[in-house]
């Protein structure tokens, strides 16, 4: 019953303007482009570390620069503000997470298995990287409207995966599915996971897998089949 | 006026004040025109009535400012200007913007819960109670969009204390759905977290409507939410049937 994998957007193009490529190399002998990319990555890692230590509100540009081992001036060469730097960090983590979920989903043999694999990948990542989990699901919410909008979009990113469950369903079942079924499922799942992280109960995340699988499968396969599939494997 | 006359008048104002708060239900515009603005300076109204009235106005002011600017950008100066109270008055009631926000959330959840329970009490059978309760909830959101936005969309922007309050607000609605287990063949074999994910999903649908500026017609999502909530307990077909029935008029 494996359907076409949903259209998953790839990572953003890392283009550098031609002007940069033409610049002469600096004192260090490395091309400016390489340095710039390297600095940007370090700033992204730096803000993740700084926020883990100080919380978003308590993080300053000085903290970020220090963790990234760059000057404040260099920070401002890459980002206009803390918010902007955090948005880049958020996107970086989300790309990684999206990639893992996509791979889990694609490798499964059927849709219910794909749902289980995708959710399992997500939970495994959040458990393995608790600082990044808090960055994405706790700190992101106080980091300004741009990040909040991306957070919301990330939740909606599950909709195509769930929607794939509509393929091959009998017509009667399809008629019972409202247009917002997938949204409600994505929102319910995200709410539970984020609340557990906020409550410092990250150790319970992987235990949530069967319940989340059952929750997602139920509208498509019915309560009995959803429960059976959720508990096996 | 005689002393006893003054006491009688004050007593009446206290009654009105309590009724007013119990009926904290009018639209922002309605209440702004109805509620007599308490003039500054000395007056014969009892202190508690004035205080409660001011508290409600400040909370309303906060909600309106958040709707306009987002939580982070709002200042206490903005709030007091909108509420028409003195800065000192704000600090009589609240220690900070965050403190005010938490009070607003607490108030809104209590009121939402009250309306849900009141609506549910009017009908028999859990599925119909869910229908009536969700209708009442959506009605409240439609009636108080600024407060709804503050509590549902901006709820977590205010930091860790807000996260705790959000947790409590989800938990507050869990028992309402847990009753459904009595109707399910699976009963307590249903996952422990089911009610939390249902409440979370409902909040998310409302959240989306608010951020896309569609809160005006929010009551139209009632049948979808009823189906979503009931299906895990009584199955899709039965859930759809209940969702298709009209809920009692608010």
Task: Note down, in words, how this protein is organized.
- The complex is a heterodimer of chains A (233) and B (250).
- Chain A is mostly helical and 233 residues long.
- Chain A folds into two domains: 18-79, Arc Repressor Mutant, subunit A, CATH 1.10.10; 86-231, Tetracycline Repressor, domain 2.
- In chain A, 70% of the residues lie in helices and 0% in strands.
- Chain A is built from 13 helices and no strands.
- Chain A is elongated.
- Mean pLDDT of chain A is 88; it is low at 1-5, 7-16 and 20-25.
- By secondary structure, chain B is mainly α.
- Chain B has two domains: 3-94, Homeodomain-like (Arc Repressor Mutant, subunit A, Orthogonal Bundle); 100-244, Tetracycline Repressor, domain 2, CATH 1.10.357.
- Chain B has helices spanning 3-22, 28-34, 47-69, 76-83, 87-93, 97-121, 126-143, 145-153, 160-178, 194-211, 222-234, 236-244.
- In chain B, helix 3 crosses helix 8 (145-153) and helix 9 (160-178) packs across helix 10 (194-211).
- The longest helix of chain B is centred in the middle third of the chain and has 25 residues, at 97-121.
- Classes of the chains: A mainly alpha (233), B mainly alpha (250).
- The A-B interface holds A 57, 138, 141-142, 144-145, 148, 152, 155, 173, 176-181, 183-192, 195, 198-199, 208, 210-212, 214-215, 218-219, 222-224, 227, 230 and B 70, 72, 156-159, 163, 166-167, 170, 184-186, 189, 191-194, 196-205, 207-208, 211, 221, 223-225, 227-228, 231-232, 235-237, 239-240.
